[in-house]
Structures are given as C-alpha cells and as structure tokens.
Amino acid sequence: MRPPLPRLHAITDERTARRPDIPATARALADGGGSDLAFHARGRELTGLELYSLAVQLSNLPSFLFINDRLDVALAVPTAGIQLGHGSLPVSAARALNPLWWIGKSVHDLAEAEAARTEGADYLVVGPVFETASHPGRPPLGLERLKAIVLAAEGLPVIAIGGITDERVHEVRSSGAYGVAAIRALWDAAEPAATARRMREWML
Questions:
Q1: What is the CATH number of the domain that holds 89?
Q2: 75 lies in a domain?
Q3: pTM to 2 decimals?
C-alpha cells in the first residue's frame, strides 16, 4: 500500500547536490521534517553517476525519496515516487515500471495542469508561485492563479514551488495547496531542522 504523499518537499539542484555538507544538511532536514518530508534528487546537469550517488545518500534517511525525471535512477534505489517534467516520458510509461510510485508532474499554468490531470498524474508541482532565482525572468503565477489551478486539479494534491519561504507557507496553504517544495529555503537555512519542522507544522 502506498504511503501518504508528504507535504514538504526538499528539492536539490546542481549547486546543492554537489555541496560537501549535503549529508549533514539532509540529515538535519530529515530530523525536522520526519515522515512528512520528501527529498527530491534533481539536477539536470548532474551525470547519471552523480544523481545515483546523491539518491543513495538520501535514501538512507528516515524520509521519502523522489527522483526527478531519471527513471533509470528511480529503478536503482528505493524510491517512493518520481516527478516528471515537460520533456519526460508520459505518466503511463512510468506507471508501468512501478504502480506503487507517486507520480507527479511539473506544471506552470492552468492548461498544463489540466493536461497532467488527464494524463493520470497523482499530484502536481505548480510554480513558480513567487519570483525565484531558480527561474530568473519567468513571471510568477501568484496566489490567485495558484487557486485556479488547485480547482482545476479536481482533488489532486498540489505542491506549490517557487520563492517558497517559511513565512509564505500559511498563505500558500490558504490558497488550497496541499504542500510546498523548496530549494534554498531548506538547503540554505541557517537551522535546517528547525526550518523544516516549522514549515511542516504550519501546513497542518
């Protein structure tokens, strides 16, 4: 039986994935996030071996592991779910590999959200909700369009991403989001365990 979808998602990028302190920071995040935390091993410029090594490190922690895009890596480590992007394989292909995976889709507007729901995604990662350094130049959706996507998702869990900080968790949740995802707010936090715990508690 599939466990509940975590509400807090700590996503890596190339910069965080290659940091020498990632094992210690990940353990602190796991301490604060517990079973409501999912790590996402992601890094478009990482080699397959780099992403696999990162995934192995994260899979040894008492939180859930998701892999972004790389289905080969997802098959090689204990993985609770995957997140597919615009250029990824279809949801049906991923589902055929493991029917117990949580399969999410990254979407950026209402049309993409409706297409992902029709395709059979289990959850949506929606953003950027606010301005973010991860996507410079991309206009943020804002809370009103986030609300519209939540309605269009028709019950699918929506994970908000993009400019998410612990101070913004409450307003994102009030807009209907099931949970939040972040890179810098979690991996660059001065006190990762306390930040993850606070963000998790504010989503309850």
A1: 3.20.20.70
A2: yes
A3: 0.96
Q: Report yes or no on 196 lying in a domain.
A: yes
Number of domains observed in the structure of the chain: 1
**What token pair was written down for 180?**
């939040």
Write the pLDDT tens digit of every residue in 20-68.
999 999 999 999 999 999 999 999 899 999 999 999 999 999 999 999 9
pLDDT of residue 132: 81
